[in-house]
Amino acid sequence: MIGILDLEICNLTSVSSAVYNLGFDFNIIKINEEKKLNKISHLIIPGVGSFSNISDEYFNNENFQLQLNDYVNKGKPLLGICLGMQFLATEGFENKKSKGLNFIKASVDLMKTDNSKMFYLPHIGWNEINIIKNHSILKGIQNKSNFYFVHSYQMKLRNKECLYAETKYLDNFPSIVINNNVVGFQFHPEKSSKNGLKILENFCNWNI
Amino acid sequence: MLKKRIIPLLLILDDRFVKTINFNSFKDVGDPISTAKIFNDSDADELILLNINRDNKFLSKLIFFLKEISKECFIPITAGGGIKSIEDATKIIKNGADKIVINSACYENYSLIKNIAEKFGRQAVVASIDVKKVDGNLKLVSNCGKKIEKISLENHLKKLMDNDIGEVMINSIDCEGTMKGPDYELAQKVNDLTTVPIIFSGGIGNYDQIKNIFQNSNISAVACGSLFNFTDSNPIRAKAYLKSYNINLRLF
Predict the structure, then answer these.
(1) pLDDT tens-digit profile of A34-61?
(2) Which of A16, A182, B83, B218 has its CA 20 to 30 A from that of B167?
(3) 8 Å CB contact of B250 and A18
(4) Is the CB of residue A26 less than 8 Å from the CB of residue A1?
């Protein structure tokens, strides 16, 4: 059973339909439903919105925090998508300084841009990933495969150990990070056609 | 670097997908959900769904199809046609669109764009502009080709950009559905006047014309209707052709 966290800031249909079409049952989990975390094998945090919103919403719910820390400490797989990936970091600076989950030692800051037509923000569209290190999550994904991105902020890693793929816009930024059982994708796998479905399937099949 | 996009353009009239010529002579091209699924499976980079029924109650049809299509298609979806308010835009986004298209309502109220951009981000707002030649002069046209607007293309684009538009889609009514080739002069003009990404549409009848557009401008995407609806063309074949010309496309 795949859990999908509903922070009520985005449309979950694309993520849940993608998971379902890949042949996995899913359960939508609201922030006050921390007990459901015991019943799932994998958890996905999708994300559209801002870092400060997701942070305020999450840190208002102590029971959920305790249960999610327990879930991650047990070594069960957690995937953050887009803002969901950024929220895995220690802290973020969108709107104001706010706390993140701290599963990945990193901060989240505005991407570099030169305001030209080539490198405007948000970074939106199809772009390549450059695979840095191999991992079972990347099985069947070629180097330089394309994924669909929509974001203006990026993760800045404190150390490169978690970096599995990066993408070039004006500068390189992390597009796949992995720390043991915690995974983050800066792109939207649910909007990235075949590659997106493949990498999502790999996550849902991941047995640690 | 971001990839150039090839986008099937799908027009919804009541319960069916249709195709027009110069915004007239509606031809049935199939069931919306299965057609969208076929494009999803043939490597389209995005889908644009436009409701071309001007009777407002039919926004509900667009929403119905959008909801079903977003369960089957795992690529970005852009949708619109008849959006008049921030509430309409919210409904379209909540039902599965990544971006909304707004056209006629822009002319009456440019700040609507800014308001939608504030709520969903500027990347979520696409302005569609229909143009046609009247006595040799380029005119902007709204309400599905019915109303000629007074504002010039240059001023309209400037106002759109001042109000945080994310992307501009331009369509030549004179070329639309003819497959006789796009208005390259128009493509160049819009390219020179805008600083946001451009989706170009109208008249594209073969892959070589797509190549010309991408090679001679910074245009980010082409939207094709007839090419993909009435021939054995599809985005996979288009990319197979364009690949030989080193155009920066999403090939895998």
Answers:
(1) 999 999 999 999 977 789 988 998 999 9
(2) A16
(3) no
(4) yes
Q: Do A126 and B43 touch (CB under 8 A)?
A: no
Taken in order of first residue, the domains within chain B and their CATH numbers are 5-245 (3.20.20.70)
Q: Chain A closest CA to B214's CA: distance in Å?
A: 14
**A9 pLDDT above the threshold of 70:** no
Chain B residue with CA closest to A200: the answer is B74
Catalytically annotated residues of A = 82, 188, 190
> Are B74 and A118 inside 8 Å of each other by CB?
no
DSSP 8-state secondary structure symbol assigned to residue A191 = G
CATH class of the domain at A2-204: alpha beta
Amino acid A42: pLDDT: 98
Could you check whether the bond before residue A122 is cis, i.e. omega within 30 degrees of 0? yes
pTM (two decimals):
0.93
- Give residue-wise pLDDT tens across range A132-167: 999 999 999 999 999 999 999 999 999 899 999 999
